[in-house]
Design a protein that fits this description.
It comes from Araneus ventricosus. Helices cover about 45% and strands about 10% of the residues. By secondary structure, it is of the alpha+beta class. A hairpin with a 2-residue loop joins β6 and β7.
Length: about 300
């Protein structure tokens, strides 16, 4: 309650100026919905291949059961969740979760196990409450100047952690991600990448080489991921089909509301992109772009001499 929250100024909407919190929330929600769309690019051959592959995948009737998370691991994870995180649409806080009696935790374990058993992520857990935060130095009257901070249901994030654990295990065992990938891999932080860059440049100086760096900033990278293309990549990387089915339901039909003050916008649909603020997205995005030849990736995404 002691935190000072910056008020959002009047916004330039598509047809009029938004003054009330309700109008501001709806204006920003409309702007975000435009962001969560595919880029205007077409490649008929690729689209036909992806569509055919997904149609064949959807014809599969019997999916083997996924390994269910260990109940002890679920309880341990719940007991360690950060109590300072804001709750999602259900209003359940991490502090509530950490103080639940064991009988209630058993019920939650039963729900999570059934999600893995049936490979279905609940609809209500796919709704995000978005809080807009003004980007530094941006025009406060422009709806696109606000960074969307997604608040997701606490139980969805607990379940997602164990989906990510199984996905990471498969990626690691099969060496799917390129070895130069940092930031989205366990024990491979951006700090390690910086150390690698320094060593690379130092080595160049010692051998009288000039070292050049190429940095790419992809606009709306997470927001405009082609979901069908991502599912195709998961299939082509031989991810277990039951895990793909669960991830597909995790990504499908996601919705959001924008909250300003005590006002909420209408429910809006997300047409493209992987959700912001979840653990799975930083893992799924490298899979989506992981088709560039390794040599090209090394020289264009990291360093070139």
């Amino acid at each position: 309650m002691r935190k000072k929250h910056t008020k959002i100024s009047a916004l330039n909407g598509p047809t009029s100026i938004a003054f009330t919190n309700t109008d501001k929330a709806e204006t920003i929600a409309g702007s975000l919905q435009n962001q969560f769309t595919l880029n205007n690019l077409t490649d008929t051959a690729t689209e036909n291949l992806v569509t055919h592959t997904i149609n064949e995948f959807n014809k599969i009737d019997n999916f083997p059961a996924l390994p269910t998370p260990n109940p002890t691991d679920i309880i341990k994870y719940i007991r360690k969740v950060n109590i300072h995180k804001a709750p999602g649409s259900d209003g359940i806080t991490n502090n509530m979760l950490r103080n639940l009696p064991i009988i209630t935790l058993i019920k939650i374990i039963h729900i999570i196990n059934n999600i893995f058993k049936h490979q279905y992520f609940p609809n209500s857990w796919r709704v995000a409450i978005v809080v807009p935060i003004l980007k530094p130095g941006k025009d406060p009257t422009n709806p696109t100047s606000y960074r969307p901070i997604s608040l997701l249901p606490t139980l969805s994030k607990v379940t997602e952690h164990f989906i990510l654990t199984q996905l990471n295990e498969h990626l690691s065992n099969n060496n799917i991600l390129i070895p130069y990938q940092f930031g989205f891999k366990p024990k491979h932080s951006t700090t390690h990448q910086l150390l690698r860059v320094v060593e690379y440049i130092t080595s160049g100086f010692e051998n009288r080489f000039s070292t050049g760096a190429v940095f790419l900033d992809i606009q709306k990278a997470f927001d405009r991921v082609w979901i069908n293309g991502l599912i195709y990549k998961l299939i082509s990387h031989t991810i277990p089909i039951s895990l793909i089915k669960l991830i597909t339901t995790f990504l499908a039909n996601r919705q959001f509301k924008v909250r300003i003050g005590n006002s909420l916008s209408k429910l809006h649909h997300i047409q493209a992109g992987v959700p912001q603020g979840v653990k799975l997205s930083p893992c799924l995005y490298p899979i989506f772009i992981n088709d560039i030849p390794k040599k090209t990736q090394y020289y264009t995404l990291h360093l070139c001499r």
